[in-house]
Amino acid sequence: MAAMAGLWFVMTLSSRPGGLVTRLLAGGLAAIMLGSWADCLDEFFRIDKAATWDNWLEALVPFGMLILTAGIYYWRHEQFMLNDHLAKRERLFRQHRAFDRVTQLADAAYLRHQIRLEQERGPSGQCALVLLDIDGFHRINREHGSREGDRVLQAVGHMLLLNLRNEDLLCRYAGDRFALLLPGMGDAEARTVAQHLCGMVAMMRHHGPHGPLHVSLRFASEAARGDAEGLMARLSAAIDGTGQALAQAASVP
Question: Which of 7, 78, 108, 122 has the most CB atoms around its CB within 10 Å?
Fold first, then answer.
């Protein structure tokens, strides 16, 4: 048992990133290993019955099992969070569509297809579309290079995904713009969601090659009705400031 616990201890440390879960799992296995090793000592060596140190070492087994149980509990919670994150991408995985090379999100063509599907499923139902634009993205590319710009796109995409429902769809629309399809949600609710997302991105600490980079978003939102091309064109015009006053900037005090 000591050998098996030792093997599991090594495998845990070599296969998991550092953190609370890893420390609990490894600590519990290490305690079980030491306690089991102490339990085997009297099979090979004569130990004075008056000695207490071996009893203390053997007591590490139940203590280690307690720590291991706590580690498994938090590991279970960690897996639920990872599964929830992956479920947000399931819509893309099932369709076997091409992913954007940088963000691993679907493209504008897939977004238009999903808008039409949502309209067919519930012509009178609520569905909103949000377009999100990274402020000053061209400056990041110019001052820090396109590779750093790609890292910013990836970081923003991950932050947005972590704050969405499973049924929501996030796509990279074009360049520095992300599109978010929100089934079952009206325009007012979509604006609230968009403001929350902008706030989360604004609080994000992105570290570039020359220090922290402040990243902020603008957004435009509208009910997902009518032609998908016309809908996206209106939102793009609003973001660019050439259309209706739908675009809004979100800031964090």
Answer: 108
